Amino acid sequence: MADADAPVELLVCTTCRAGAPTDQEGPRPGTRLFEALQATDLPANVTLRGVECFSNCDHGCSITLRGGDERWTYVYGNFTGAEDAELVADGVTKYAATADGLVPWRDRSIHFRKNCIARIPPLEIPE
Amino acid sequence: MADADAPVELLVCTTCRAGAPTDQEGPRPGTRLFEALQATDLPANVTLRGVECFSNCDHGCSITLRGGDERWTYVYGNFTGAEDAELVADGVTKYAATADGLVPWRDRSIHFRKNCIARIPPLEIPE
């Protein structure tokens, strides 16, 4: 049965440039967001992982939220870097508290409402 | 181990409008694409399913390809309707022939090269 304690993965694209020039030195915005999230308090059932490229480069920085066979998977974009760590933490905290991945619209932050890139149904597709 | 015969799902958004007006009568472009695919020859390891809304409405019609714990999941967009059934069938046939979901760039159709909305790593994320 559905269980809001089921493990959740927060995947962060570490190669996202967020529109930064290709010759800019130092860590990319996606890597900075990932590092900032490593220093952020996340729910116990959330695992943070860095991934190279979600093929959403025109709308990076990007993250993906997924968790088990019963939750919808979500891709969110247009984060700008480390300064969005708290915004991402808020979103994944709400997602991880659900059994199906569906956070009520009224509970989503403005950024999450406006920057959903795509969602993918759970393996057990609801009727 | 990886197995190109592992089952693949071709998910088609049946609510996509592909830019059609909201007051247009009859089945939506996404539904027409889904119905055309039902009449199309697909590999034996592919299951076609209709899904309502991938939250990719600005770039529909949309499809998702996924298949097991070892393949990348892909969302493709900007299909126009039933007339793209053969194009989608070609893409899913190539995807279903892979063990990891990664179709070489040179083998992808122009549409698939240009209209990847997002990709999500397999559960077993490659290093």
Architecture overview:
- Two copies of one chain form a homodimer.
- Chain A has one domain: Glutaredoxin (3-Layer(aba) Sandwich).
- Chain A starts with 7 loop residues before the first strand and ends in a 7-residue tail after the last strand.
- Chain A contains three helices and five strands.
- The longest helix of chain A has 12 residues.
- In chain A, 21% of the residues lie in helices and 20% in strands.
- Chain A is globular.
- With 127 residues, chain A is an alpha+beta fold.
- A five-stranded mixed beta sheet of chain A has the order 2-1-3-4-5.
- In chain A, helix 1 packs across helix 2.
SSE arrangement:
The structure is a homodimer of 127-residue chains.
Chain A: E1 8-13, H1 29-38, E2 46-51, E3 63-66, E4 73-76, H2 85-96, H3 110-114, E5 116-120
Parallel strand pairs in A: 1-2
Antiparallel strand pairs in A: 1-3, 3-4, 4-5
Helix pairs in contact in A: 1-2
| Low-confidence regions of chain A | none
Number of separate domains of chain A: 1
CA-atom Rg of chain A in angstroms: 14 Å
Taken from the alpha-carbon principal axes, the silhouette of chain A is globular
Order of helices and strands of chain A: EHEEEHHE
**CATH architecture verdict of chain A:** 3-Layer(aba) Sandwich
